[in-house]
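Okay, is this right?
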Amino acid sequence: MELKIKRFNELSLDELYKILKLRVDIFVVEQSCPYEEIDDNDQKAIHVWFEDKEKIMAYLRIMDKGVESEYVSIGRVIASERRKGFGTKILEEGIKVAKDYFNADLIYLEAQVYAKSLYEKHGFEVVSNEFDLDGIPHVKMIKKL
Protein backbone atom coordinates (compact mmCIF):
# COMPACT_ATOMS: atom_id res chain seq x y z
CA MET A 1 0.00 0.00 0.00
CA GLU A 2 1.36 3.40 -0.97
CA LEU A 3 0.83 6.65 0.97
CA LYS A 4 0.15 9.68 -1.21
CA ILE A 5 0.15 13.32 -0.08
CA LYS A 6 -0.68 16.00 -2.63
CA ARG A 7 -1.99 19.50 -2.92
CA PHE A 8 -4.93 19.97 -5.29
CA ASN A 9 -2.83 21.23 -8.21
CA GLU A 10 -0.57 18.17 -7.92
CA LEU A 11 -3.42 15.66 -8.34
CA SER A 12 -3.76 13.91 -11.67
CA LEU A 13 -7.22 13.86 -13.22
CA ASP A 14 -7.42 10.14 -12.49
CA GLU A 15 -6.52 10.67 -8.82
CA LEU A 16 -9.05 13.46 -8.43
CA TYR A 17 -11.74 11.34 -10.05
CA LYS A 18 -11.02 8.36 -7.74
CA ILE A 19 -11.07 10.61 -4.64
CA LEU A 20 -14.34 12.30 -5.55
CA LYS A 21 -15.97 9.02 -6.59
CA LEU A 22 -15.08 7.36 -3.27
CA ARG A 23 -16.38 10.33 -1.28
CA VAL A 24 -19.64 10.51 -3.23
CA ASP A 25 -20.13 6.72 -3.14
CA ILE A 26 -19.85 6.65 0.67
CA PHE A 27 -20.95 10.05 1.98
CA VAL A 28 -23.75 10.74 -0.50
CA VAL A 29 -24.98 7.43 -1.93
CA GLU A 30 -24.29 4.88 0.85
CA GLN A 31 -25.37 7.24 3.63
CA SER A 32 -28.36 8.50 1.60
CA CYS A 33 -27.27 12.06 2.31
CA PRO A 34 -27.63 14.55 -0.52
CA TYR A 35 -25.29 17.43 0.27
CA GLU A 36 -22.65 19.54 -1.44
CA GLU A 37 -19.78 17.05 -1.35
CA ILE A 38 -17.74 19.11 -3.80
CA ASP A 39 -17.56 22.26 -1.70
CA ASP A 40 -14.80 24.48 -3.11
CA ASN A 41 -12.42 23.56 -0.28
CA ASP A 42 -10.60 20.81 -2.15
CA GLN A 43 -8.48 23.40 -3.95
CA LYS A 44 -7.20 24.65 -0.56
CA ALA A 45 -6.62 21.22 0.96
CA ILE A 46 -3.83 18.73 1.19
CA HIS A 47 -5.16 15.33 0.12
CA VAL A 48 -3.81 12.26 1.89
CA TRP A 49 -4.63 8.70 0.92
CA PHE A 50 -3.48 5.11 0.83
CA GLU A 51 -3.67 3.41 -2.53
CA ASP A 52 -3.32 -0.28 -3.28
CA LYS A 53 -3.36 -1.57 -6.85
CA GLU A 54 -4.99 1.60 -8.18
CA LYS A 55 -7.73 1.54 -5.50
CA ILE A 56 -8.01 4.13 -2.74
CA MET A 57 -8.16 2.29 0.57
CA ALA A 58 -8.45 5.34 2.85
CA TYR A 59 -8.54 9.10 2.37
CA LEU A 60 -8.77 12.41 4.20
CA ARG A 61 -8.11 16.05 3.50
CA ILE A 62 -6.42 18.67 5.66
CA MET A 63 -6.95 22.41 5.56
CA ASP A 64 -4.98 25.22 7.10
CA LYS A 65 -6.37 27.65 9.65
CA GLY A 66 -9.07 29.92 8.30
CA VAL A 67 -10.32 27.65 5.52
CA GLU A 68 -12.94 25.55 7.30
CA SER A 69 -12.39 26.70 10.86
CA GLU A 70 -10.10 28.86 12.93
CA TYR A 71 -7.88 25.79 13.40
CA VAL A 72 -6.08 23.38 11.11
CA SER A 73 -8.82 20.89 10.25
CA ILE A 74 -9.16 17.33 9.06
CA GLY A 75 -12.18 16.23 7.09
CA ARG A 76 -13.69 13.71 4.70
CA VAL A 77 -12.06 10.83 6.60
CA ILE A 78 -13.05 7.67 4.81
CA ALA A 79 -12.03 4.05 4.29
CA SER A 80 -13.23 2.02 1.33
CA GLU A 81 -13.29 -1.12 3.49
CA ARG A 82 -14.41 -0.91 7.11
CA ARG A 83 -13.01 -2.67 10.16
CA LYS A 84 -9.61 -3.36 8.58
CA GLY A 85 -7.60 -0.59 10.25
CA PHE A 86 -7.45 1.75 7.25
CA GLY A 87 -9.30 4.54 9.10
CA THR A 88 -6.78 4.40 11.92
CA LYS A 89 -3.82 4.43 9.53
CA ILE A 90 -5.07 7.38 7.49
CA LEU A 91 -5.91 9.37 10.61
CA GLU A 92 -2.39 8.82 12.00
CA GLU A 93 -0.91 10.05 8.72
CA GLY A 94 -3.30 13.01 8.64
CA ILE A 95 -2.17 14.13 12.08
CA LYS A 96 1.48 13.97 10.94
CA VAL A 97 0.69 15.96 7.78
CA ALA A 98 -1.18 18.61 9.80
CA LYS A 99 1.95 19.08 11.92
CA ASP A 100 4.45 18.94 9.05
CA TYR A 101 2.63 21.07 6.48
CA PHE A 102 0.70 23.52 8.67
CA ASN A 103 2.66 23.45 11.94
CA ALA A 104 -0.58 22.57 13.73
CA ASP A 105 -0.67 22.77 17.49
CA LEU A 106 -4.38 21.92 17.52
CA ILE A 107 -6.52 19.98 15.02
CA TYR A 108 -10.26 20.41 14.57
CA LEU A 109 -12.78 18.05 13.01
CA GLU A 110 -16.49 17.38 12.89
CA ALA A 111 -17.07 13.67 13.46
CA GLN A 112 -20.09 11.61 12.66
CA VAL A 113 -21.23 10.39 16.07
CA TYR A 114 -20.92 6.71 15.17
CA ALA A 115 -17.17 7.26 14.46
CA LYS A 116 -16.44 9.36 17.56
CA SER A 117 -14.55 6.54 19.33
CA LEU A 118 -12.05 6.28 16.44
CA TYR A 119 -11.05 9.90 16.98
CA GLU A 120 -11.04 9.61 20.77
CA LYS A 121 -8.51 6.77 20.47
CA HIS A 122 -6.22 9.28 18.75
CA GLY A 123 -6.56 11.97 21.41
CA PHE A 124 -9.45 14.01 20.03
CA GLU A 125 -11.90 15.35 22.61
CA VAL A 126 -15.53 16.25 22.07
CA VAL A 127 -16.06 20.01 22.45
CA SER A 128 -19.73 20.36 21.48
CA ASN A 129 -23.12 18.84 21.93
CA GLU A 130 -24.41 16.61 19.17
CA PHE A 131 -25.70 18.54 16.18
CA ASP A 132 -27.36 17.62 12.92
CA LEU A 133 -25.31 18.12 9.78
CA ASP A 134 -27.14 17.18 6.61
CA GLY A 135 -29.33 14.70 8.51
CA ILE A 136 -26.44 12.92 10.27
CA PRO A 137 -25.55 13.43 13.96
CA HIS A 138 -22.10 15.00 14.43
CA VAL A 139 -19.90 16.39 17.21
CA LYS A 140 -17.06 18.90 17.07
CA MET A 141 -13.72 17.52 18.26
CA ILE A 142 -10.30 18.98 19.03
CA LYS A 143 -6.88 17.37 19.43
CA LYS A 144 -4.14 19.35 21.15
CA LEU A 145 -0.66 18.47 19.92
About this structure: The chain is about 30% helix and 35% strand. The mean pLDDT is 94.
